[in-house]
Write a structure and sequence with these properties.
Blueprint lengths: L1 H23 L8 E12 L2 E11 L4 E9 L2 E9 L4 E8 L8 E8 L7 E6 L2
Antiparallel strand pairs: 1-2, 2-5, 3-4, 3-6, 6-7
């Protein structure tokens, strides 16, 4: 029974140290990142409208690449957004061909191989 009490006390002490260690580290609020907000796909008269905002919180002016595909047609747009700035992307899609039933986009930050935002929509 003595060994069980010693194990219990040691466990409580270790948990307390772990808690103190976790609480003593400051939370880093200076995280730099890019973000897509207010993503919308709206059906208007005879067309679809894709609209979203790209927010630059990188701490510097940053270049972005927006790749979109309507059906089988690719579109590419390059933009530079100032630090703490925003860019509103708008694309009008007027589906005329039967194969234009899909819309997808991906947003890349300069120097990164994978997008930080992507989505695919079915246009019907």
């Amino acid at each position: 029974m003595n060994k069980l009490k010693i194990f219990y006390v040691i466990t409580i002490i270790l948990l307390g140290l772990l808690l103190v260690s976790t609480m003593s580290r400051p939370i880093n609020s200076d995280v730099k990142y890019s973000e897509v907000q207010r993503r919308q796909l709206v059906q208007a008269e005879g067309e679809w409208i894709l609209k979203f905002d790209i927010l630059n919180r990188e701490g510097k002016d940053t270049n972005y690449t927006i790749n979109s595909t309507v059906g089988n047609r690719p579109y590419v747009e390059y933009v530079t957004i100032q630090d703490a700035g925003m860019y509103t992307y708008v694309q009008h899609v007027r589906p005329g061909n039967p194969e234009e039933k899909g819309l997808s986009f991906a947003v890349y930050k300069e120097g990164e191989g994978s997008p930080f935002e992507e989505a695919t929509y079915s246009l019907r």
